[in-house]
Design goal:
Structural class: alpha+beta
Number of strands: 5
Strand content: 5-15%
Number of domains: 1
Largest sheet: 3 strands, antiparallel
CATH topology: Arc Repressor Mutant, subunit A
CATH architecture: Orthogonal Bundle
CATH class: Mainly Alpha
Low-confidence stretches: 1-11
Radius of gyration: 15 Å
Distance between the termini: 42 Å
Length: about 110
């Protein structure tokens, strides 16, 4: 890890996202406006990017915790919403099953 990565590197266009966060944002961008995704689908999408021939079929399970952590990070930054039972949840205090969606516009 170089010094830029250790210090929370930024590029000229802004902070550099974690690869898991990038996968979450890409999956949300591909989905229809207002639609939700599951953490499982985000983990599966990321696992397919990283898959080797010898990896087990349930490789995606290894990435569920990373998806949860990056979801919290993105929600705190105001880029996505974490939903519990269809309603926005506090990213600092939620438990159990959750879904993700892009942050709704304030004027929409």
């Amino acid at each position: 890890m170089n010094e830029e990565q250790k210090s929370g590197a930024t590029s000229p266009s802004g902070p550099v996202d974690d690869p898991v966060a990038t996968a979450i944002m890409a999956l949300l961008a591909e989905s229809d406006a207002g639609k939700v995704i599951t953490p499982e689908s985000a983990a599966r999408a990321y696992a397919e990017i990283r898959r080797w021939k010898i990896d087990p079929p349930d490789l995606w399970r290894r990435y569920l915790n990373a998806v949860r952590q990056q979801s919290i990070h993105l929600a705190r930054a105001g880029r996505i919403e974490i939903l519990r039972k269809g309603k926005p949840a506090d990213p600092n205090n939620f438990r159990g099953v959750f879904r993700l969606r892009l942050k709704a516009d304030a004027d929409g």
